[in-house]
Design goal:
This protein is α/β, with parallel strands linked by helices and 228 residues long. 23% of the residues lie in helices and 26% in strands. It is built from six helices and 13 strands. It has helices at residues 49-58, 76-79, 82-89, 100-104, 185-197, 214-225, and strands at 7-8, 13-17, 29-33, 38-41, 66-70, 92-96, 127-129, 134-138, 141-147, 156-162, 165-169, 202-204, 210-212. The strands form two sheets. Strands 1-2-3-4-5-6-7 form a seven-stranded mixed β-sheet, with helices on one face. Strands 8-9-10-11-12-13 form a six-stranded mixed β-sheet, with helices on one face. Helix 5 (185-197) runs antiparallel to helix 6. It is globular and about 40 Å long. The termini are far apart.
Length: 228
């Protein structure tokens, strides 16, 4: 089945992966293009990697320009393709240190790969984000990581400024929470508030697509606060 074309979100940000762009099992993948280099936010499952690379190229960006793969968390639909992308592109993998062991060991349960009846290829992690602030300079942009535990112990959101807007890559705002995933409901509620406090103009979610506008993004986040 033919898939859709990459979606331009700002002049520098594109959605290049996801159920309607690569393969049905994939969460969204987002491309940020700087002057000299680019980064990818989340890898999908790896089942649609050829389509993902084609979509990156369709934006006018050579995939080899990608220097970093920024992972929001360890779950298979977001990180299953990490090993293959690291090998193909030579990019550096980045994830929070609390989620890193599950990806490095190929843990099929905590990463939910077993939910998809798939193996998870263990992936080395090049940069582990810890308690200290972490940011990446991607001229002319600065991408900042924020720890938002709850869905997984090491869940992250990333923020940047583009076209005068705060863009937030917040992949699984909606959860779910499950003991096998080592989810924590109290942490999740606090993290939803932290996402609200980041006051984004554009929210790039993993399964719900792009939410534009401060009020609209805040309303989306709040809708899960009441259910948590």
């Amino acid at each position: 089945m033919d898939k859709g074309n990459p979606l331009r979100i700002t002049r520098a940000v594109f959605q290049v992966g996801g159920a309607n762009l690569t393969t049905a099992e994939d969460a969204a993948s987002y491309l940020v293009v700087g002057h000299e280099a680019a980064v990818l936010v989340d890898a999908g499952t790896g089942l649609g990697i050829e389509r993902l690379l084609a979509n990156i190229a369709a934006t006018g960006t050579t995939p080899k320009r990608i220097t970093h793969l920024l992972l929001t968390h360890c779950h298979f639909d977001h990180s299953g393709g990490a090993f293959a992308l690291r090998k193909r592109l030579g990019c550096r993998t980045v994830i929070h240190h609390l989620d890193a062991p599950y990806l490095e060991t190929g843990d099929r349960f905590t990463t939910a790969a077993n939910w998809y009846d798939r193996p998870l290829t263990p992936c080395p992690i090049d940069e582990m984000i810890g308690p200290e602030p972490w940011q990446l300079e991607l001229e002319p942009f600065r991408i900042i990581a924020h720890h938002v535990p709850g869905h997984s112990p090491g869940s992250l959101v990333y923020t940047m400024e583009s076209d005068g807007s705060t863009v937030m890559f917040a992949q699984d705002v909606h959860g779910p929470l499950h003991s096998i995933l080592k989810s924590n409901r109290q942490d999740y509620r606090a993290s939803l508030q932290r996402m609200l406090d980041l006051n984004c103009d554009v929210l790039c979610e993993g399964h719900y697509g792009i939410i534009r506008g401060k009020k609209e993004s805040a309303a989306f986040i709040r809708s899960f606060m009441s259910a948590s």
